[in-house]
Amino acid sequence: MFLQFINYIVLLKLLEIRLIAWGSWMKAQILDEILATDSRIRCAGILDKDLKTVSLKAREGLMREKENLDRQMVALASPLILGTLSRFTDKAGKLICCGVRYDKGTFLFFKIGESFVVVGTEPGPPHVIMQELEEKIRI
Hints:
Blueprint: H1 2-21, H2 23-37, E1 41-47, E2 53-58, H3 64-86, H4 89-92, E3 97-102, E4 105-112, E5 115-121, H5 127-137
Helix pairs in contact: 2-5
């Protein structure tokens, strides 16, 4: 049992080292995977633990108005929303996912490790896309 625990810790450390070494490449790859999950996904972004935008990618051919809305949501609104929700982790547990629906778009927020992933989608119920993302990239 103890040996399994040590092996688990070693694997986690190796994964952490690999993620640090491949940092920007991995971020670009995960954003591409998110965009490929569903045609209704308009953009995907990664925020660091301090809620600053690390990377953002929009679907090719996205109308400028939608792209601007998505960029503003990731850069400006995400830190406010996630910062507020993070205050409840002591009482409610780890934040897994939350969504915000507007007339012109839906935004999903996922916590992965120390980072947050923000996904902008076309308007509509987010549960199908949330499930697809959870299955495909194990959010």
